[in-house]
Amino acid sequence: MRVGIFGGTFDPIHMGHLLLAQQAMETASLEQVWFIPAGEPPHKQENEITPAQHRLQMVRLAVEGNPRFLVNEMELKREGPSYTVDTIQILKESTPEHDFFLLVGADTVKDLPHWYKIKKILQLVQVIGLGRPGVRAEGLPDFVTDRLQWIPGAIETSISSTAVRQRAKCGKSLRYLVPDPVYQYIKEHRLYGT
Ligand SMILES: Nc1ncnc2c1ncn2[C@@H]1O[C@H](COP(=O)(O)OP(=O)(O)OP(=O)(O)O)[C@@H](O)[C@H]1O
Ligand SMILES: O=C(O)c1ccc[n+]([C@@H]2O[C@H](COP(=O)([O-])O)[C@@H](O)[C@H]2O)c1
């Protein structure tokens, strides 16, 4: 089976993430996308991140009802930084029958050359990238571009978790930025200053 693996901090998950997953699925003829919330995202400050159980629950709510979008908790159960190379190696070893594709947004594409064991990652998976307005991923080394496919004619959005958190803090609505059940969850648990 062709499977997209989509890692993120998802603090919180938003419509931009879901649009990326949907369009990547179509572009690469994926049967499923596995959303993998990061336990300790390697390039983010741990003390600024919402506890994992909330981020996980919001991802679960966001994909509910879509049988092709699944949640994988492996990085939340692992100690230490959530290095993608480890995740991919474990997935390849445990399910060798699948072909894995790594889904990322343009800001992450730009950052790929700085990832831990990136050359190993690119030996194991192809990358599907979605543009983000205002982000130009140029001057990438050949070892990245050779394994990277942008989603052609993609619908891009500048929605970010940062913008969602900022709106919440200002008392603005999150409707249409996150799925309704995620918005309800944020309000119920008073996340992000709501
Ligand atoms: N609007 C978007 N368009 C395309 N890709 C996106 C978008 N938002 C997030 N992504 C991608 O989703 C993955 C996970 O991102 P992450 O969970 O850090 O969300 P974020 O919105 O970038 O968060 P933050 O604003 O907190 O940095 C990354 O590959 C990121 O590039
Ligand atoms: O493996 C790495 O070196 C690495 C460095 C930065 C980010 N990542 C992964 O990329 C995904 C998106 O990260 P982030 O910080 O934008 O949420 C998430 O799954 C991280 O674990 C992975």
Automatic annotation (TrEMBL):
<keyword id="KW-0662">Pyridine nucleotide biosynthesis</keyword>
<keyword id="KW-0548">Nucleotidyltransferase</keyword>
<keyword id="KW-0520">NAD</keyword>
<dbReference type="InterPro" id="IPR005248">
    <property type="entry name" value="NadD/NMNAT"/>
</dbReference>
<dbReference type="InterPro" id="IPR004821">
    <property type="entry name" value="Cyt_trans-like"/>
</dbReference>
<dbReference type="Pfam" id="PF01467">
    <property type="entry name" value="CTP_transf_like"/>
</dbReference>
<dbReference type="GO" id="GO:0009435">
    <property type="term" value="P:NAD+ biosynthetic process"/>
</dbReference>
<keyword id="KW-0067">ATP-binding</keyword>
<keyword id="KW-0547">Nucleotide-binding</keyword>
<comment type="pathway">
    <text>Cofactor biosynthesis; NAD(+) biosynthesis; deamido-NAD(+) from nicotinate D-ribonucleotide: step 1/1.</text>
</comment>
<dbReference type="GO" id="GO:0005524">
    <property type="term" value="F:ATP binding"/>
</dbReference>
<keyword id="KW-0808">Transferase</keyword>
<feature type="domain" description="Cytidyltransferase-like">
    <location>
        <begin position="5"/>
        <end position="167"/>
    </location>
</feature>
<comment type="function">
    <text>Catalyzes the reversible adenylation of nicotinate mononucleotide (NaMN) to nicotinic acid adenine dinucleotide (NaAD).</text>
</comment>
<comment type="similarity">
    <text>Belongs to the NadD family.</text>
</comment>
<protein>
    <recommendedName>
        <fullName>Probable nicotinate-nucleotide adenylyltransferase</fullName>
        <ecNumber>2.7.7.18</ecNumber>
    </recommendedName>
</protein>
<dbReference type="GO" id="GO:0004515">
    <property type="term" value="F:nicotinate-nucleotide adenylyltransferase activity"/>
</dbReference>
<dbReference type="InterPro" id="IPR014729">
    <property type="entry name" value="Rossmann-like_a/b/a_fold"/>
</dbReference>
